[in-house]
Amino acid sequence: MGSFRGKIGLVMGVANDRSIAWAISEALYAEEAELAFTFWPSPSAERRVRKLVDAHQPRVLESCDVQNDEDIARVFSAIRETYGRLDFLVHSIAFAPPAELKQPYLEMSREGWHLAMDISAYSLVACCREAAPLMPEGGSVITISYFGGEKVIPGYNVMGVCKATLEHSVRYLAWDLGREKKIRINALSAGPMRTLSSAGVSKFDEMQKHHVSKSPLERNVEPAELGTTAVYLLGDQSEGVTGETVHVDCGFNVVGL
Ligand code: NAP
Fold first, then answer.
1. What is the pTM of this model?
2. Residue of 40, 197, 220 with the most ligand 1 atoms within 8 Å of its CB, for mutation
3. Residue 228: which residues within 8 A CB-CB, separation 6 or more?
4. What confidence tens digit (pLDDT) does each residue in 123-177 have?
């Protein structure tokens, strides 16, 4: 406890108390981190996030649509004005048009594909570019991925293609951010969790059942387990680790049959 005392982080992607970003925030708060948050620009999203974080009174709580470069710049300039620096960044954001996710991948529209890629993969690059100047002494970034970026998970469709891009983007970012800047970046590949986003994935219940029957630990992952691994990746314990995809999935990814 207290291993993040004095550290300042930005968490992007809390929608409600089921969000992976919230499980991570709770673990970081337990380690006494100072957290700033962004929320999707809508009054209902703002209400939900304000209610969750109220007890901690964050000094920076900004709306941000990651498709909008001005929004991203405003968020990081608020961090600069308030704290003058940043120690870590949690990127926990993805979107694909729900109607298109339900169709075969072969039917994906150009527009839907670009939208999903922009929000779910490119946004990490844009956020890292703004975060890096605020981390002159080094820092740590994580993003959240899923096994559907490595193997075909029927129904995960374009989101799997986005996650493949996201994970490889992490490797290239590890190079650019690591050289001279000494900033680390890793992907945390989470097992299936029931959240607002996962509601858009068809056969999600089946995915969770399959996980229980096939994973070595014979169960689904708990939100708190994502939190503890995030704390490891964002903190000093992992100071030699960058460019990795770390699976927190009860071992599902190592099983072939
Ligand atoms: P979630 O609670 O719905 O979080 C997704 C977040 O992305 C929401 O806060 C959403 O905001 C935000 N978002 C979407 N479009 C945005 C945009 N243009 N600008 C800014 N924010 C935007 O669901 P989650 O499951 O925790 O998802 C978090 C991450 O974990 C995603 O990358 C997801 O792919 C990944 N992941 C999820 C699972 C799973 O099974 N749930 C497994 C592995 C990986 P609003 O909802 O307020 O619009």
1. 0.98
2. 197
3. 27
4. 999 999 999 999 999 999 999 999 999 999 999 999 999 999 999 999 999 999 9
* pLDDT over 90 (residue 203): no
What is the β-pairing status of strands 88-91 and 139-145? parallel
Which CATH number is 208's domain given? 3.40.50.720
- Using CA atoms, how far residue 190 sits from 12, 21, 56, 97, 202, in Å, is 17, 12, 26, 21, 18
Task: State the total domains in the chain.
Answer: 1
Contact indicator for 9, 234 with CB cutoff of 8 Å:
yes
Phi, psi of 197 (to 5 degrees): -65, -40
Nearest to 68 by CA among 49, 40, 48, 42: 40
Domain that holds residue 32: 8-254
- Cβ < 6 A, ligand 1 pocket: 13-15, 19-21, 40, 45, 64-67, 92-95, 119, 144-146, 190, 192-193, 195-198
